[in-house]
Write a structure and sequence with these properties.
The chain has about 55 residues and is of the alpha+beta class. The protein contains 1 helix and 3 strands. InterPro entries: MPN (IPR037518), RadC_JAB (IPR025657), UPF0758 (IPR001405), UPF0758_CS (IPR020891). Keywords: Hydrolase, Metal-binding, Metalloprotease, Protease, Zinc. It comes from Bradyrhizobium japonicum.
Length: about 55
């Protein structure tokens, strides 16, 4: 989870790529990444909810 100071909770390509890299690294260790939430001024975005992970 993190915030976007700009106020727009839309995930950037960097957010998506970094999340996928963390998932790939965590999986062999038995760690499940359930979601990546981005908080903005007027709401939030869930990468899982957006079907990006």
């Amino acid at each position: 989870m993190h915030n976007h100071p700009s106020g727009d909770p839309s995930p950037s390509q960097a957010d998506i790529q970094m999340t996928k890299a963390i998932i790939d690294i965590a999986k062999p260790l038995g760690i499940a990444v359930h979601d990546h939430i981005i908080v903005g001024k007027n709401g939030h975005a869930s990468l899982r909810g957006m079907k990006l992970i």
